[in-house]
Amino acid sequence: MVSRVSLSSNPPFISPQIHPFSEKKLISKVNIKAPPLIHFEHQTYIVQSSASGFEYDEKMIGYIKDYKRVFDLACIDHRGTPEHPARTCTLEESEGAICWGAVYCVRGGLEKEKKAMEYLERRECEYDSKTLVDFFTEEDSAQPALTGVIVFTSTPDKVNNKYYLGPAPLEEMAWQIATAHGPCGDNREYIFKMEKALYDIDHEDDYIIELANEVRKVCEIVNSGIQKEKKLIGSAHIPLKTKISSPVKIFSLPEAVVAVAAD
Prior knowledge:
Layout: E1 37-41, E2 58-75, E3 86-106, H1 110-123, E4 129-135, E5 146-153, H2 170-179, E6 181-182, E7 185-186, H3 187-200, H4 206-235
Antiparallel strand pairs: 1-3, 2-3, 4-5, 6-7
Helix pairs in contact: 2-4, 3-4
């Protein structure tokens, strides 16, 4: 069991004709009515009151089957840079696994759906495909609550997917996450927010907890190194002396000779 860190704190199947995209898995059940656009969020936006960029009409907590989270995707424009890519979360197919998150349902016509999808495609630009999945809730693990749910995924292929980093040892991933920084902030903040989001919905992910704890260890090492460096720099300064002895020798002058003029 992974040790946990104490933390404070209904929709029509989306048709490919309306929203064309490449999919790895297409699930269609005509007996379930669904909204035009449903996005499954498995990252940091699970518990936010706003999806941080697009309007939505309904949100539901639940899970998808046969997928697990992995930090195998590079990010060079949000939490990292091309020189120092961040590591971010993507989904990997894994039989028998479940991945908890939230669905955001968007109703209101094609224009509203288009805006939401354009925003999501900008935000998730490192993901090279979209997959349609079934979405389940705690109430019924056999019958999906929704079908045709969009989730952004990435091809696990370093040759054909330039953003795919692949797996790495836990410590190596932690160092990369702890030290990467981009226009949207630190990479470490991203994983800590995800950890808390899953805590808040009461469905923690052991993999995320283990990786986040390793990132904390690296942060401590990095911070202690910075403090040591500051001390070394500080000790190199020459202290001011309160008393300065002058190298100049001072000699007493001979008594002045006064000449008195005679009348």
